[in-house]
Amino acid sequence: MAALELALQALAVFGLLLFVVLWLMHFMSIIYVRLHLNVKHPEVKQTFPQFNGVSLLKPLKGVDPNLVSNLETFFTLDYPKYEILLCIQDQDDPAVDVCKKLLGKYPGVDARLFIGGKKVGINPKINNLMPGYEGAKYSLVWVCDSGIRVKADTLTDLTNQMTEKVGLVHGLPYVADRQGFAATLEQVYFGTSHPRSYISANVTGIKCVTGMSCLMRKDVLDQAGGLVAFAQYIAEDYFMAKAIADRGWKFSMATQVAMQNSGSYSIAQFQSRMIRWTKLRIMMLPGTVLEPVSECFLASLIIGWAAHYIFRWDMMVFFMCHCLAWFICDYIQLTGVQGGPPSFSKLDFAVAWFIRESMAVQIFLSALWDPTISWRTGRYRLRCGGTAEEVLDV
Fold it and tell me: Is 237 part of the annotated catalytic residue set?
């Protein structure tokens, strides 16, 4: 009985600590978004003798309804010195024709098309980017996914953050306004749960970076072995960021979000991507096993039980009040990331928020069930530490 009582006390203390940590994360992310994101800052004076040239590495595969409009935003950037390196693995990929049309439409833009890739490891994105990386002529490389849309001043914003001691500038992932409930679900996730973890990690010094839009110093990457050094990993963005941090460089976050605008989306695709990301985190960061207790419903149950055990408060009343407070803070967070009210109604937000929160534990358990992931056209078995091997169909 004494051992049981001790265990209950420990669980209650854990619940109180969880309450403190999670609400610190809420407040840190909300305050950071309000002060830093979507805010026009005075331009930072360049610390180099001349304006920094940027080589944009654009990995492409396939065509979706928004690819042309997304790509075109990079051809109209208001930046004096940059090149666009379009990388496509297969000669027969329909994206080749899209790129050729844009190259013809914007002959004054320094842009080149690389077809064929170069097999250097397991990661198909790295293999695709290799010819472009080897042909890059500027000291800064900007790796930016095909589904990203930018504003005319996005690259200026990124380079303004690349100050003397910064080696990597990244954008907070978000989602553009699109039609349908699947789009709302994605926007709710990338405006609530994801930025809460992403921002609070970066504010507290934990290097948390996604590779959707990253500006990096090429010489630092070369010191780490170049892109080839990261071809053995599926989560190449994490290991590139780690290599830059290990060499003493700081990170900075852009004031503009990395705006995802894929023309192909569904609830099933969203769920599949969340499971894939969770699998990668589990293999790279063992602490990910605690991730479910950072989600609203499970956290509210644990904290509610702790409040009942210690203070004799009604557990269900506390649970409902805690979920309501979480819901309100998430909406405030979303409007900050969006830069104003979202395009959907508060009712749509409530429904999408409830479904997303309800999916969280199921996504985590699905990630634990199977260590293989499907990405692009391949299937891979993950190993501890983040490396992987391709699973070949017999």
Answer: yes
